[in-house]
Amino acid sequence: MEGLRRKDSNIERYIMLSALQDRNEKLYYRIASDYIEEIMPIIYTPIVGEACIEFSHIFRRAKGFYITPDDKGDLLKILDNWPEKDIRVIVITDGQRILGLGDLGANGMGIPIGKLALYTACAGIHPNQCLPVMLDVGTNNKEIREDILYLGYPKERIKGKAYFELVHEFVMAVQEKYPNALIQFEDFLTPNAYALLNIYKDKVLCFNDDIQGTAAVALAGLYATTRITKIPFPDLKIMFLGAGSAATGIADLLVLALVKEGLTKQEALDRLWFVDINGLVVSSRTDLMPHNLPYAHNHLPSNFIESIKTIKPHVLIGATGAFGAFSKEVIAIMSDLNERPVIFALSNPTSKAECTAEQAYTWSYGKAVFASGSPFDMVQFNGKEYHPGQGNNAYIFPGIGLGAIVAHASIIPDELFLTAAKTLSETVSDKNIEEGAIYPRLTEIRTISLEVALAVSEKAFDLGIARIKKPKNLRQTILDYMYDPNY
Ligand SMILES: O=C([O-])CC(=O)C(=O)O
Ligand SMILES: [Mg+2]
Fold first, then answer.
1. Which has fewest Cβ within 10 Å: 166, 272, 278, 399?
2. Domain that holds residue 272
3. How far is CA 213 from the centre of its chain?
4. Are 122 and 446 in contact (CB under 8 A)?
5. Quick check: is 115 catalytic?
6. Alpha-helical runs (H) found in 80-159
7. Closest ligand to 392 CA?
8. Boundary of a domain, candidates 155, 173, 204
């Protein structure tokens, strides 16, 4: 840790940790577990974003599996080259929407590597059972493609039929080679993310973290805000800025959660409002994508500020990838409307956050209940300390994966994300709430993942999607499975 701390920059720390992962895996996971609050922002959001931008330039050794269009027809054979035979979690990206950074092509491999490191550090999935995959189908980012050090397939992206056939061949090859493996789709462009999820979610063990994982983390945070605002969960009126996969993913899970609380589907939809780059999402618009249609209201078109003033949401959720989208005016209006305005600035990395924690607290005169996707430090304002929550996907996906693995689940229905969100929100202590934080400390992450995994696997057995007989002591079975990074 002393060696790590003496480095001048976080990207150097990333390189050092990546080298340690190659050289002494157990030590890497030991320090990742022991110093999780310090290490996580380096190996994952936000520094992993910087690492992806520079990936070809800081490359030391390959970690993971690359697929190009030239491999079509051979994927089953090529998978034989992977030395491990018992893969349990695969994180796959095509690099087209890396965090909020856009198309980074094969440089996006930093994301599967980082997410899988968290599967091990946070939920004890054995590192040998993790497989990072880059679906290297080209990049439309000319600057990256023409970079002399670029390691990816140096062509424009394939799309349409050729693209979906390649993904399908991979998914089918996994079913044959690694029938117990969970496939996590990560950082795909929204239309592809939804298309792939809709094709595979009822057929194979898979989920999309940007749609479903983010949704569960946000939902858990929303449950926790009600302990501060005292507004009952079914009464919440929520406005989203951004209508991409993260935002509609959250809304889709919210509808499920609200219907469980006794609302009709229509009543649930009525509470959720979207604003995107073209203004309020209303039914008269002709530019909406299929995943936006259920949320298009019969309402006059209006811009963001006007929409806040007329609709008067309790909660504002930003998933835009646009830094500064929550201006001083936006926060001020929310604070006029609400005693405790709830502000979620979920875009990643930090450079894309809709506002910073400091802005949210100062512009709301300390009233905001704030959470972000990327971590922010504690803020001092008017002599008081404010502890921003990080709606970190790592609270959910490692536990979901662990639960699914232990139950040998065949699929991951949305119901499991609801269970995971409820479980996570129950781990938020009164002390967290007193400090204004709506998520627990990351130092608790292994226990949180265990609780999430336990609840998720219980649910999988209840739903009849587990492929094994239920063990007598599920908690012990999970504990026995977990990789221990101790010597
Ligand atoms: O990586 C994160 O923290 C959340 C995420 O999946 C994304 O922003 O794409
Ligand atoms: Mg992601």
1. 278
2. 212-393
3. 5
4. yes
5. yes
6. 110-123, 142-145
7. 1
8. 204
Number of domains in the chain: 2
Contact (Cβ atoms closer than 8 angstroms) between residue 104 and residue 55: yes
What is the position in ligand 1's atom list of the atom closest to the CA of 210? 6
Active-site entry in 44, 150, 295, 395: 44
Q: Which helix (H) or strand (E) holds 412?
A: none
What's the CA gap between 205 and 256, in Å, rounded?
A: 21
Q: What is the mean pLDDT of residues 278-286?
A: 96
Average pLDDT over residues 295-302: 97
Please name the residue whose Cα sits nearest to atom 7 of ligand 1: 99
User: Token pair 């994982």 is at which residue?
Assistant: 213
Question: pLDDT value at position 155?
Answer: 98
CA of 373 to the centre of ligand 1 (A): 7
**Ligand 1 pocket, residue 373 CB under 6 Å:** yes
Residue finishing a domain among 354, 377, 393:
393
Share of the chain above pLDDT 70, in %: 100
pLDDT band at 487 (very low <50, low <70, confident <90, very high): confident
Residue 151 three-state SS: coil
How confident is the model at residue 215, as a pLDDT? Answer: 97
Q: Ligand 1 within 6 A of 210 CB?
A: yes
209 Cβ inside 6 Å of ligand 1: yes
Sign, CA torsion 156/210/376/12:
negative
Q: How far apart are CA 15 and CA 29, in angstroms?
A: 15
pLDDT at 147: 98
Please state the rounded mean pLDDT for residues 293-304: 96
Q: For CA atoms 114, 115, 119, 122, give the dihedral sign.
A: positive
pTM: 0.96
Which amino acid belongs to residue 221?
G
CA distance 474 to 487: 26
Check the annotation: does 392 bind a ligand: yes
Cα 400 to averaged position of ligand 1 atoms, centre (Å): 16
Q: Atom 9 in ligand 1: which residue has the minimum CA distance?
A: 99
In single-letter form, the type of residue at position 239 comes to M
How far away, in angstroms, is 393 Cα from ligand 2 center?
8
CATH code for position 389: 3.40.50.720
**CB 48 near ligand 1, within 6 Å:** no
Q: Is the CB of 212 under 6 A from ligand 1?
A: no
Find how far residue 112's CA is from the centre of its chain.
12
